[in-house]
Amino acid sequence: MQLYKEQELKIYNSLTSQKEVFKPINEGYVGMYVCGPTVYSNVHLGNVRTFMSFDMIFRYLKHLGFKVRYVRNITDAGHLTDDADDGEDKIAKKARLEQIEPMEVVQLYTVDFHNILNKFNFLPPSIEPTATGHIIEQIEIIKEILDKGFAYQINGSVYFDVHKFNENHNYGKLSGRNLEDLVHNSRALDGQSDKKNPQDFALWKKAEPQHIMRWPSPWSDGFPGWHLECTAMSTKYLGEQFDIHGGGMDLKFPHHECEIAQAEACNNQSPVNVWMHANMLKMNGQKMSKSTGNSINPDELLSGNNDILSKAYSPSVIRFFMMQSSYRSILDLTDDGLLAAEKAFKKLIEAMNSLPKLEVSNNTSNFDLTTWKQSCYDAMNDDFNTPILIAELFSAVKFINQIKDGKATISKEDFNTLKTTLDVFVLDILGLQNVSENNANGSNKLSETVELLIKMRAEARINKDFALSDKIRDELAEIGIQLKDGKDGTTFSTN
Length: 495
Ligand code: AMP
Ligand code: ZN
What we know:
This protein has three domains: 3-278, 3-Layer(aba) Sandwich (Rossmann fold), CATH 3.40.50.620; 282-429, Four Helix Bundle (Hemerythrin (Met), subunit A) (Up-down Bundle), CATH 1.20.120.640; 437-494, no CATH class. It is 44% helix and 14% strand. It has 16 helices and 15 strands. It has helices spanning 45-63, 90-98, 102-119, 135-147, 162-168, 179-185, 226-238, 252-267, 298-303, 315-323, 335-353, 369-381, 386-404, 412-429, 444-462, 466-478; strands spanning 10-13, 18-21, 29-34, 67-72, 151-154, 157-160, 201-206, 222-224, 242-248, 272-278, 281-283, 286-287, 331-333, 481-486, 489-494. Helix 7 (226-238) crosses helix 8 (252-267), helix 10 crosses helix 11 and helix 12 runs parallel beside helix 14. It starts with 9 loop residues before the first strand and ends with a strand. The model is unreliable at 436-442 (pLDDT under 50). Residues 35, 37-38, 46-47, 49-50, 247-248, 250-251, 280-281, 288 line the site of adenosine monophosphate.
């Protein structure tokens, strides 16, 4: 029997602001769409957190036995610099600055995105469609919205008529805004805009002569509005109505609100049953932002090559750190937090690695493994509550350590439950990797050798033989091993 028949999964639905028992539209199948990255720059750690939350959700749904079709798109056109309907296309802007083709920008940062996600042990989505690969579908949707009377064409552009839509639909139902307030808080149109109302949004924009990313359409040579691609790709691969739509909290408005409006305008039904929003990542209490310098990219974090944190952290430690908080909470990245996560993760993995040597007795166990296993499921069934799951995993760690100290016993049957449950939750669902026995960087021998060189370098420095100490550091760097001197000594990372 599939696990989903035994386990009652509840998910917090942003549309209703409550946890609901999850019932897919077609029993046994789940359709999930997550807004992917706009590939105009290196993926940052905030993006990684959001995608990691949905990777964990994807993993748990699969574990429960659902056949999941997980669609995560790549935005490679239509996302403008001011996130609304003005400004330059983010990708075209980068192409102009770098003097390369927009598709070179797309390729460069799509590859970077995949490389980074691979380092963090992400599962690939089932389909990863691109906006530029679905221009025809987007044009067809615009035609349909025009036919239904919810859009207007003006000077080669097409805009969604929010006021018309709101006459018999509810624009703002996801973000809890209402149109009257939006009208109140909007700046008046500046006379440059073709829109009837500031709340309207672009479905198709006529390209100015300098706009290089353009496609033919019945209205003009131009490009689709940003919100449209997700409606086109989710409908194409998951249908007019599907189970889960996710993204970062910042996408709730206007992006997701506009997706709902577009789909309802076409099909007169709500496109998504459960809307899920992952919360933001901060650093040292401040919003992570490239412009203020309060940001760190994943490679800098993994290599230790940064001025913000004291050392390098392995992908699993960072993943563990992120999983220690609920996907719906704001998470603050700090050195202390990462150090604590590293310690805790090591303890967990050490306990798991000690299992083969654990003495199994014929006695009964002093720990109720059946109840514990169900508590792990209960945590995940409660809107994917990974911090509670981790607390449960540590009850098992405590028990394992008690057995090692001769203060507790475990039966053979319970031992098997313990081992498989830990493997399932730690490795398959949280997506952590058991690399600690070999050190986070790969091999035990490598780390022992580098530790030896670090020691020899320290001795050289004591003897004021700086030529030798620099030689050790530089030659290690040449083969891709970086040394980092911190207040607690020297650490190393590999790239
Ligand atoms: P973008 O590439 O800007 O379209 O963003 C890709 C995804 O990352 C979206 O789901 C965003 O909501 C999410 N995101 C952006 N910044 C952060 C952040 N600081 N913390 C968490 N998620 C973020
Ligand atoms: Zn989207």
